[in-house]
Amino acid sequence: MDDISPASSPEDAAPAKTSLLRTRIRQLTTPWWRLAWLIGGLAWAVVFNVVYVTTGGTQEWWGIVSVVPIALLLLDLLRLERLERAAEQKRQAELKKRG
């Protein structure tokens, strides 16, 4: 690039892609209540799994109860992913209309 060529404007530049891992971590930790839900869900799972194992595995419902908060968090993340995908498709459709 030579000194006389104009710099590209921010509108011309493609948005930077973030890594999938970084996106997933952001989804798990923002907003604050989702991070609290994740930490609480992990603690819940550990406690109920310990109870399940120490009782000799006779009460199967302890094992099922241990995964409920994590399952609910994952359902929320799937909902969020679906909304983001729909918004991206809408943006792409708008760009096709303009271009």
What's the structural blueprint in terms of helices and strands?
Elements: H1 20-29, H2 32-54, H3 60-66, H4 68-98
Helix pairs in contact: 2-3, 2-4
Provide the gyration radius in Å.
Answer: 22 Å
Number of H/I helices: 4
> How much is the average pLDDT?
82
Strand tally: 0
Major sheet size, sense and barrel closure: none
Helix residue percentage: over 70%
- The dominant shape is elongated
The helix/strand class is: mainly alpha
Low-confidence stretches: none
Intertermini distance: 28 Å
Describe the protein's architecture and organization.
- 72% of the residues lie in helices and 0% in strands.
- The chain is elongated, with a radius of gyration of 22 Å.
- The two termini are 28 Å apart.
- With 99 residues, the chain is mainly α.
- The longest helix has 31 residues, at 68-98.
Short key terms for the protein model shown above:
elongated; 99 residues
